[in-house]
Amino acid sequence: MDLSTLLPFLANVIVGGLVLGFVYAIIALGYTMVYGVLQLINFAHSEVFITGAVVGFEVFRILAPVNMNGYLKLLIALLAAMLISGLLNVVIERLAYRPLRNAPKLVPLITAIGVSLILQDVLRVIEGFQGRFDLTYTLPAGFAAKFCSAESSCAPLGNFLRQIGVDVQLKDVILVVVALVSLGVLNYLVNRTRLGKAIRAVAQDRVTAGLMGIDANRMISATFLIGGALGGISGVLFGMKFGTVNAYSGFDPGIIAFTAAVLGGIGSIPGAVLGGLTLGVIQNLIGVMNVFGGALHLANLEAIDASYQRIGAFIVLVLILIFKPTGLLGKSNVEKV
Amino acid sequence: MTAATLKKPKATGPDRTILLVLFFIVTSAFLLISHNGDLLPQLGSVGTALRNPIVEALMVSLFLANILFAYLWRAAPWAKALVGVGSLLFVLPMAGREDTSLLDLSIQIMIFAALALGLNIVVGLAGLLDLGYVAFFAVGAYTWGIVGSPRFAEILKYFGENPGGTNSGTLAIGLVLTAVTAASMVYINRLTARTAPTAATAWSFRLASVGLVAGVILTVRALLVLLAPQADGLAGGLNAGFFWLFLALSIFAAAAVGVLIGLPVLKLKGDYLAIITLGLGEVIRVLANNLDLYTGGSQGITPIKSASVPWFDAAAGALGFTEDQYYLLFLYVLVLIMIGLILTVNVRLDKSRIGRAWVAIRDDEVAAQAMGVPLMQTKLIAFATGASFAGVMGMIFAAKQQFISPESFVLNQSIAILSMVILGGMGSFPGVILGATVVTLLNLRILPGLGEATANLGIPQQVNPGQLQRLIFGAILVTMMLLRPEGLLPNRRRQLELHHDENQEDESAQGNAGALTNASGDVYSAGLAPVKEDDKAGGSR
C-alpha cells in the first residue's frame, strides 16, 4: 500500500472513528450526568442503553411494513427509546439507589451491578419469548446507502468527503446529526434552564441546595430521566451503527463509554464528548494498525489487530490519568453537570 | 473454613454444644448417604429424593453451615474442634471419595474464599476499589500453566529457531541492567525517604523502573534461548516437582505485577482507581487472549500438571481413593492448608502496624498522611499482599482445572469476588469466607440445581430458573444491599460506620452514654461515606 491509497484510508478510519466516538460520547454522557450528581458509577447504564437499543429495534421492526418516511420512523424510535429508557432509569434510581443515598460508596456500586445483571436477564427473557436473541435492525431503505452517491445532488460536505476519498453512509451522517442535536439540547437544558440550574446546584452541594428550596430528590430523578433518555438515544444509534444487538451486548460499549467519561474528566459534559471522540478514533486506529505495520514494514505493528482495540482504550486512559489524574477536562475548569 | 482456629467471638446466647454436635452428626450422615452411589438405589424413593439436585445442594449447604455454626454458636471448645476438624478433614473427603464433584466444589469454594480474603485486604481494609483483581489470579494461573504444560516446550522451540543476537551477551546485559536499575530504584527510594522528592528523583525513578522491566525481559529472553536445546526433553512441561518452587514464585510474580500496576495508578482515588484497575485487568486478559505463543490464545493451555507426593498418594490409596482422585484430594488438602495460612496472615496483618495504617488510609487519607503513614508504600503493600494470595490460588486453580483460558479471567469474575467480599461483610474475615461460600454455592450448585429440578415442571424455557441465574444473583445482590448493607457477618467497626445516623440519634437520646460510639463513627465515615446529608431537607420544602 503506498501513500496515495494510505492517506484516504487513514481519513476513512478517522471519520469512522469519529462516528463511533459520537455513539460513545452520548453513552458517556449518561454516566457522567449520574456521576456528577451522585458520585456513583451507574453500572446499570449499559443495560439502560441496551434497553433503548431493544426499543429502537422493536419500533423499526413494527414500522417496517408501514409506508412512512424513514426519518419519521427514526424519530418515533428515538422518542420511544428515550421515554422507556428514561423511565427505567428513574425507576432504578427510586428503587435501588435512593434508599442507599447515605451508605458508603461501594454499597450502591454493588447494587448497580446487581441491577445490571437483573436487566440483562429481563431483556433476554422478553425478547426470548418471541424467539429472538440477536436483534438485527431493519433500517428504513436508503439509510445504509452511501451518503451523497454520485447520482444524487450533493451538499458541499458530500463533495468534500468524496474529494478526500472518504466513504460515509447516510446512517452515519444521521447518527452524527442526532448526536449533535441531543448534545445541543442537553447543553441548553443544563446551562440555560431553571431545571439545569437546579441540577447543577444539587450536584455541587445537595444539602445547601436543599436549604435554598430545591427538591434534591426530584432533581436527582430528573438527572436520571435525562441520563436515561440519552441512553435511549445512544442505544438506537448504537443499533443503527452496528446493526445487531443482544441483551448482553451493552457491557463492552458501556465500559468503553465509562472509560471515555473518565478520560474526559468525569462529571464534565464537554469532557465526556471529547473522551468519547478520542476513544472512538483511537479504537479505529488500533483496529487497522496491522495495515500500517504492513505498509511501513514494521513487524511489531503488524501483530496488532482489531482484538487489541479495547486495550488501546485502556492504555490511553492509563497514560492520561498518570499525567493528568483528573482527566482531560477535569477539575481546573470543572463543570459538574 | 478453618473457622475453628479463629478467635472466638464474644460468648453470647445459650450454650449450644449438644445442638451443634447433633446438627453435625445429622448433616454429615445425610451428606455421606446422599453421595454414596451404592447405597442410594437401595433406598428407593428416599434415594431418588436425595439425588434431586436441589435437595443435594441443600444438603451441601446445611453441611457447610456446620462450620459456620461452630464459629457462631457458644459451645464447648471440644465440640467446635470436633465439628471443624471432623467436617473438613474427615466427612468432606469421605463424601468426596464417592462423588468427586463435591471435592471439586470444596476446592472451588476455598479458592474463592482465598481470593475474597485477598481482595478484602485491598478493598475492605485499605479502601482501594480494585475491579481488576482477577488479573492477579490470571498471573498465578499462567505462571504455572505455561511451565507446567507442553506450552513451555513450544516457547523454547520458538526461541531456538529465532535466537537473535548472542545469548550469553544478551544475558549479561540483561542481568547487569536489572541489577543496576533495581539498585538505583532502591537508592532513590532511600533518598526520597530522607529528603523531599524532587522532579529529578521522580523521573529517574520512573526511568529506572522502565530499565528494570527491560532488563528482566532481556534476561528472560536470553534464558529461554539458552534453554532452547532442551525443548524436546521438556515436551510435557517441567517436572511436577517444580510445583513447589513455582508455588513460591507465583506469590512473587503476582505481587510484582501488583506493584507494577500499583505504582502508576495508586495515586488515583476512588472511581478513577476503580476504572483503571478494571482496564488493567482487561489488558491482562486481552494479552492472554492474543499472545498465542505464550498463552495459547483463546484455545488456552492444557494439560497442566499437578504435583504428586508419593507418601500422600499412598495414604490416599489406603483410605480407598482411586488413582485418578489422588490429585483432587491432594489439592483439597493443599488449599485447606493455604487458606489456613492466608487466614493467619490476614489476622496478624490486621492487628499489625500495617493493618492499622490500611484502615487509617481507608478512613481518611489526608489525616493518615498527616499522622506519618507513608501513603504510597502502605497502599502498595496492600495491593501486593492481595495480589500474592490471588497468585497462589491462581496456580492451584490451574493445577486443578488442568486447563486455563482467558475465559476464566473475565471482569465478571472480579465482580463476583467483589460481591463475595461485600455480601459477607467488608473487613470481616469470617464474613468474607462466608460470602465466598454462599456466592460459590449459589453459582455452582444452587442456581444450576434449581434449573435442573424445575426442568420438567412445565415452566416455559425462557423463564426457567436455570436460565435466570443472572437475574436471581442480581436480585440477591440488590436485596442484600438494601436490607443489610454491612454484610452477613459484619465487621464491628464497619457496622458502626453504616449505622452512623442511628448512633447519633442514640446518643442524643441517652445523653453521654453513646459518646464513644459516636465519636468513632464520625472518624470512620470521613473517608468512605459522605458526610451525613439529609435529603429530606430539600424534599419537604
Residues in helices of chain A, as a percent range: over 70%
Write the element-wise H/E pattern of chain A from the N-terminal end onward. Answer: HHHHEHHHHHEHHHHH
Tell me the helix content of chain B.
over 70%
How many distinct beta strands of chain B?
0
* Cross-sheet strand order for the largest sheet of chain A: 1-2
**What best-fitting shape of chain A do the alpha-carbon axes yield?**
globular
- Are there runs of chain A of 5+ residues with pLDDT below 50, and where? 332-337
* Structure classification of chain B: mainly alpha
Whole-number mean pLDDT of chain A: 86
Number of helices of chain A: 14
- Biggest interface found: A-B, 61 and 60 residues
Instruction: Spell the H/E element sequence of chain B.
Output: HHHHHHHHHHHHHHHHHHHHHHHH
Average of per-residue pLDDT values of chain B:
81
Organism (chain A): Deinococcus radiotolerans
Membrane topology (chain A): Multi-pass membrane protein
Transmembrane segments (chain A): 6-31, 43-64, 70-91, 173-190, 222-243, 255-274, 281-299, 311-330
Subcellular location (chain A): Cell membrane
Structure, briefly:
The complex is a heterodimer of chains A (337) and B (541). With 337 residues, chain A is mainly α.
What do these coordinates show?
The complex is a heterodimer of chains A (337) and B (541). By secondary structure, chain A is mainly α. In chain A, 72% of the residues lie in helices and 1% in strands. Chain A has 14 helices and two strands; from the N terminus they run H-H-H-H-E-H-H-H-H-H-E-H-H-H-H-H. In chain A, strands 1-2 form a two-stranded antiparallel ribbon. In chain A, helix 2 (45-63) runs antiparallel to helix 3, helix 6 packs antiparallel against helix 9 and helix 10 packs across helix 11. Chain B is built from 24 helices and no strands. In chain B, helix 1 (17-34) packs antiparallel against helix 3 and helix 6 runs antiparallel to helix 10. The chains are: A mainly alpha (337), B mainly alpha (541). At the A-B interface, helix 4, helix 8, helix 9, helix 10 and helix 14 of A face helix 11, helix 18, helix 20 and helix 24 of B. Chain B: Pfam families: BPD_transp_2 (PF02653).
